[in-house]
Structures are given as C-alpha cells and as structure tokens.
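Supplementary Methods S3. Complex input for the 9MR-bound model.
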Amino acid sequence: MPTRRDFIKVAAGTAVGTSMCAVLAEDVFAMTEQDTFEQDSFEQDSFEQDSFEQDSSKIPSHAAFGLDGLHGEAAKKKMFFGSATSENRIITDIPYRTALVRESGIIVPEYEMKWDIMRPSATTYNFADADFMINFARQNGLAVRGHTLCWHRALPSWFASTANSRNAAQLLTEHIATVCGRYKGRIHSWDVVNEAIEPTDRQTNGLRNSPWFRLLGESYIETAFRAAHQADPASLLVYNEYGVEFDDMQRSDAILNLLRRLKARNVPLHALGVQGHIRAADKAKFAANMQRFRTFLRDVAALGLSIIITELDCDDTALASNITARDEGVGGMYGDYCSVVMNEPAVIGIITWGLTDKYTSLNSTNPRADRLPQRPLPLDANMVRKNAWYALEYWFKNTTQRPRQTITSVAEERIAPTHRLRCVPHTHRSECAIQFTLERSEDVLLRLVDVRGQDVQILAQTRLEAGEHHVVLNYAPFPAGVYFCILQSPSFLVSEKILLQK
Ligand code: 9MR
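Predicted complex, serialized as structure tokens:
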C-alpha cells in the first residue's frame, strides 16, 4: 500500500508546483512554521473586503460546503450516505477526491484499519495510514466508520503462528483497547465483528470456523463488543455481515439468533451492518426474496437495533458488454435494493463499497469474462454520475425522514472548513475574489476545476505563511458555468462550488 512518502514523490513529480518540488518527501509532513520557503506574492489589488461580505450571501449555503451530492440528499432525511475509500486514491487523484468530498458525509477506510495494515507484529502498531484517513475526514468535515476490529480475513502473517488459545483473548482486547482508544470520539461507528456467521462451516449456532472461533469459541464476539464499548463509549457498535438479501434463511436465521443472544446478554451492540454486495444477475432472485429480506430487516429492528447498509455495490459480470445496458441493469438493481431498505425506518444510512468504478475491488475479486472493467458503483471512472447514483438520489428524496440524525455533527463540521475558503464572483468584471485563511505555514495548491474535476487553472502553488490570503481569479477566458475552487495542503483539502457568470 502506498504511504504518505509515496504521495509526496508523486506530488513532486506531477501536479504540485515548483516550490513543493524542492521539498524532500520526508520533510513535508514534518515542516513547521520555522521552515523557510520562498513565498510567491498573491495579487491583492482588486480585492475589496466590503464587496466580499456583501456578495457572499448570494452563494447558496448548501452548495458552499459540498452538501449537494448524495449525502446532501440523505441528510435532508436525517440519513447519511458515504463510501469506502483509501489513502492512495485520496492522495493521488484530485478529481476523485473532489467527488468523494462532494458526495459523501462519511467514509470508511477499505484497508487502513484492518489488522494486516495496523499490526506489523504482535507487539507493535502502524497508525500512520489510519491516522491519515481520520485526519483527512476531520479536515473535510466527514464522519468515519471504523472497519474492522475482528475478522477472519486480512490478518497479518504472524497471526497464525503467534495466536493461541491462551493469548487470543488478550490479543483481541488489547488491539481493540488500543485502536478504539486512539480514535475515541472520532469514529461514528465501528464494525466490531465482521462476518462471523457461515452455516456451511457446520459449527455451533452457524458460526464461521474462523481463527477467532477456533481459539476462543463464540465468546470472542462478546469480548470484542465489550472491549470496544469500554474504549470508545460514544461509538455506534456494529455487527457487519453479508448474504442476507436472498438465501435459504439459514444465514439470516443464524445472524438473527446471534443478535438475539448478544442482546439477551446485554452486550453493547447497536446496529447491524448489511453489506449489500449484490449482483445484477440476481434481479429475479432478489424480487422473489424481497419479502423475506424485508421481514429479516424488521426482525432486526424489533431487537432495538439500527441498520446500516455498509458495503453496497453491484457485480455486473452477468451482463453483456454494452455499457448503457450494464448501467441500466446495475442502476435497476440499486433501485430494487433501495425499494426495500429505504422503506425500513431502522435503516439509517447507506455506504457504497467505493464511489467510482475506477477503484472497485470487484475487478480483482471477480473480473468480467470480456475483461472490461466492472461498473458496480454510483460514479463511472470519470466521476460522472450513473443510473446507480440517480437510483440512490431518487430513494433518498422519496424516503421518509428518520427521527434522529446520527451524524449531525458532520453537517456542522462541514461548515468549518469553508471559513478557510470563500469565493465571490464579480460578474461585471469577470473576476472572482478568493479568500482563505491558513492556521499555520503550509505548502498549498489552489486550483480551479470544472464539474468533472478536470483542472482549468492552477491559481497558486507555493508555501504560504499562516494568516489570511487573497487571490483574484480572472475568469474572462473561461466559459460561464459551475466550477469548483479547491485548496489543498498536506493536511487538508477544502473545495467550494462557484457559479461563474458573465
Ligand atoms: O474490498 C476489499 C479488498 O480490496 C481487500 O483485498 C479485502 C481484504 O482486505 O477486503 C475487501 O473488502 C471486504 C470488506 O473488508 C469486508 N466485506 C467484504 C469486502 C469485499 O471483499
């Protein structure tokens, strides 16, 4: 997995400008206000503070902090929308990152919080990648789901030879205390235990014959939840599972019974995560099982649990090559799926497993026979919204409002970064006044991108001192329309939508 160091190498070789190129990889994250870099001077002449204040009211507030994507729609119903993501994509792909921040209110690290990344050895931790994700989220007003504290996959190579029945409980509780403790108060919900049921393994209660089960028996599940609650009492604790949408009821019955046993023992468990890995091939099967799926969700809700759709994507391997037909097939499946889950008040949010087809893990786990990339997600590889996106939007618009927003703080936090970036167009002179404030001396990149996330102009790339900065964009050469102004540094990224009119 690429590290922050890789990012800087990429940045130095490509998009980031001259002053940053001189900075050695290791130094960027360690730079302090004492560092001396030449500072390009910004144009300040034609910027008028008064007119800035006056004009800023014309910008619709929801657009100004990125609530005009799917999360914005979800939030109107006190729900949330988010997606799985990872460090490398965030760092290297600006159009993607712009789309991520625009569409999501919550993110989940696809790799960075798994044992194989966090635990180089039985006694050490790697927090760098998870820290990056948490900091990125915080700086962009996004909530974070933690994934995952206890799973039979993604275990480090030392695990099999080191863990035994005498030390396994200690290993698990120590890991959870350390990781949950470190991120206490910053995680909306933790996938505490992932995929513990597999009836075909023929173990007691339909439990999966996982390393954790072999070492500790069923008690590992309770142990994990209690440890997570102790370390981070404010986090919503989730049992996360797949394969409940259409089965012979063996899986869903086993899951429901596990949830019942946990609740009966007063285990701190707050929600079921329904992964939602669906396949376009299963359209008829899904329709035939809809009622059973609905009943399952209601039975879960009857236990007093919330439900989060945690990993939605739609495998398109069964569909012919034609892109339009595939997008319609996948979008149709999203619609069918939403017609069930959005109608259940216990379902509080939807997370897709990736946001864009560009980074779906399905191409490696289940490649298409024709070798074309799969199209399972709401945005295509160019960040253009597809049928699946519109299906989600439709259902967020048409679902009933949930009683309580579980990530209220996101909407508030999203406002904060905009204090650092404000853009006010002056139509009569085709200029846009851009103002931002830096809390400390940083290397910044300020750019104008179009609605597809393509660069239109680099406005500044330099190291700047702490304080307020002004830039004037002359947009006379560009067509009128909607653009995004993006300000980024190694420690934050903020964007603002601007309507440039002439
Ligand atoms: O999408 C993830 C894939 O890239 C990883 O290689 C794999 C192992 O870490 O995990 C995948 O994500 C899984 C998630 O963590 C749990 N539910 C099933 C997901 C898809 O396999």
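Residues 417-500 form a domain with the Immunoglobulin-like fold (CATH 2.60.40.3080). The chain has a mean pLDDT of 83.
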